[in-house]
Amino acid sequence: MGYSVCLFMNSMEQETRELARGLRRRDPDLLDELIARYHYRLLRYLWALTGNHEAAEDLFQETWVRVLERGHQYSPRWKFENWLFAIARNLSIDMLRRRQPGSLDELLSPADTRAPRELPDPDSLTPFESAAAGEQAGHMRALLQRLPAEAREVLVLRFQEDLNLDEIAAIVEAPLSTVKSRLYRGLEGLRNLLKEKEV
Amino acid sequence: MNPQEHDRARRLIDAWHVEGIQAQEREWLNAHLAECAECRTQALTNERALQLLRSNTVRIDPALVSITQARVRLRARELRENQVRMRALWISCALSWVLGVASAPLVWRAFQWVGLHAALPNLIWKTAFALWWLLPGGAAAVLLAWQRRHALNQDGYTTPPR
Asked: Which of A88, A141, A156, B46 could disulfide-pair with A63, CB 3.0 to 4.6 Å?
């Protein structure tokens, strides 16, 4: 058991070291692979952050360009996705601030009205499950939209991305206690909205 | 059951998901939930909310990934070309510095000669000599500093996460 854990950790370390080397070299093939691997999670996070489809797509592209440009700053000590989310978050704040100065929440524009095309998480579903997932997603999106951006963001990082509290604190650049209180508030808000909807 | 027990149970229901709870607390909570319908409803609502959140999907334009990959490749090429240009610039700077150092005694004599023949005070031709050396380097330093400042202003996130 211990030996296999050790082997796993070693291969993880080796992988992040290779990733760091590739990013320093600005290897386009590596970037292609990373975009393909993380596109869904990044877009989902950006959507949760901005609440706006077009803005999320613009930021998605910007984030990957910045990953290329700032690849030499990536250290193998960090999980790549945490670094990616931190870049995406800072870019989002910069972009939204440029568009409309104010707090993150005030910056959010209403959800767009473009007809959505739902794609399930990479593990493919049956057509029936896809339809059901699409309906549920619309339901959840509407609920999430009504939560403050800060709470929405940490909820997504904790319960969709399964990050631990320290990782979330590093990404959102906030103390652990703030992250916890945002999570508690977010969870309570989500629960209340769900109850309200059911009533 | 007293109200404090319900409060504790509600706090633990949320804490379970947010930061995890001790085995002892979980045992106590399970026993409480078995008896209290109101707290059980809260626990089930939490479960349902999180289940919905986890199953949430986002809209993805199928072309987005390929467009992004193409944009990143294009930017990578631009950066490579820029790097080659910068390398050429640094090499020419280094060469110019070496030539400058090598020719310094000759330039000094030239300024001295002009100073003598034009009957200029020593301070004038020595200052002219210093400016001859300092101005190009100063201009280049200002230009590089401006470029760096401009690049930093474009993104303020150069510090990655811990």
From this structure: A88
